[in-house]
Amino acid sequence: MPVPGPSPRQPSLPSPAARPGDRVPGPAAAPGALAGACGSGTPVPTAASAPPLVPGPPVQGAGAALARLLRGPSGLGTAGLSLVRRAEPAAPAEPAAAGTAIPGLYHHPVPEPDPVRVEEVSRRIKAWAVEEVELYPPDWEDQFDGFSLGRYMVACHPDAPGVDHLMIATRLMAAENALDDCYCEDHGGSPVGLGGRLLLAHTALDPLHTTAEYQPQWERSLHADAPRRAYRSAMGYFVREATPAQADRYRHDMARLHLGYLAEAAWSETDHVPEVWEYLAMRQFNNFRPCPTITDTVGGYELPADLQARPEVQRVIALAGNATTIVNDLYSYTKELAGPGLHLNLPVVIAEREGLPVRDAYLKAVEVHNDLMHAFETEAAGAAAALPVPSLLRFLRGVAAWVDGNHYWHQTNTYRYSLPDFW
Ligand SMILES: CC(C)=CCC/C(C)=C(\C)COP(=O)(O)OP(=O)(O)O
Ligand SMILES: [Mg+2]
């Protein structure tokens, strides 16, 4: 969502594109993100019921017992649900949609998301955005449509029982991106004062408990801008479906996300380019994690809190979040290069801190992603074997499906992303 003019968030270090001898793509200015009016609206909630998990065909590449544990559902949109390592790439399911996968990127193609669900989620999310929360002004409609929220969430949640459940994830995804755009990025965002804005928006997820005198002021504040309206409304729908433990898990993951935004902003204010491992630590927080970790709520079941909190499950979640987020760094590389200043992403940080030409840095970032993906799959298979509890197995399959759907969305969102010319 680059807009003309300098952003106070961007440090003024030279672009890696300036390195002599490097061939760097020159994409047209990438289209904008899901953007918010960042200015003034109101909300309300729904429900639905849980589905059975359909048994699927046997998987290959693991012992029989493990294979049985990891067996995923069958049917449209479920191909990504197996936790067993698959050959790369899994050619037969390559999507027909536009967009080229990054060469050498370890990923699992998914079938086209169910078009009927996509259409209905797209219709409902636009109605919510326009009528319930005034998420964006009319002239940003193309950017909202180009984000393809419906396709994204249907691809990521193939085991959702229906559209009501998909809407839980889709509203949150819209809200999360509106806040990022309006508070952090180029739609009015800035590192200056970000902490205060984030904290007040966080109270739309994790309510203020105060005295009668101050309560009305706080309640009014939740309608003051698009991110807060969206957070408040999306969270309202979510908590109606979620158990208290699931809602608390989401609040915790959003606090992690906000902490990551703050670290990124702090480095930007001082033009600091972190070391690669430091960048990866920041990006573990400024991360898609809040999205795959609601897969059980969206699926209409619950992974119990004591299982979710186990270290081996936490490691699986973190690795999945990190792999999905580095996918963003890779697919959004040219968009971020075209913006003002230096936008940190993994290829840029590797180039800066390890002195590599941009192409080599990009290819190294692909390898970092692939290592994260392999670690995720190995650890997920290990957790499934050690804890063969049905809710955990389904959760792990749901996270794997989210990883695959997220890759699919990035690959096919040619409105938003384009690849560098490195191959
Ligand atoms: C949906 C969600 C929880 C997002 C939080 C963090 C975030 C916005 C990303 C991981 C996407 O990264 P980025 O800000 O670089 O997005 P674009 O490259 O502009 O698409
Ligand atoms: Mg990005």
From TrEMBL:
GO terms for molecular function: metal ion binding; terpene synthase activity. GO terms for biological process: terpene metabolic process. Its EC number is 4.2.3.-. It comes from the Bacteria. It is an enzyme of class 4 (lyase). Residues 1-43 are annotated as: Disordered. It catalyses: (E)-2-methylgeranyl diphosphate + H2O = 2-methylisoborneol + diphosphate. Keywords: Lyase, Magnesium, Metal-binding. Gene3D superfamilies: Farnesyl Diphosphate Synthase. Its cofactor is Mg(2+). It holds the Pfam family Terpene_syn_C_2. Residues 1-14 have a biased composition (Pro residues). Residues 16-37 have a biased composition (Low complexity). NCBIfam families: f2_encap_cargo2. Belongs to the terpene synthase family. 2-methylisoborneol synthase subfamily. This is Terpene synthase. The lineage of its organism: Bacteria, Bacillati, Actinomycetota, Actinomycetes, Kitasatosporales.
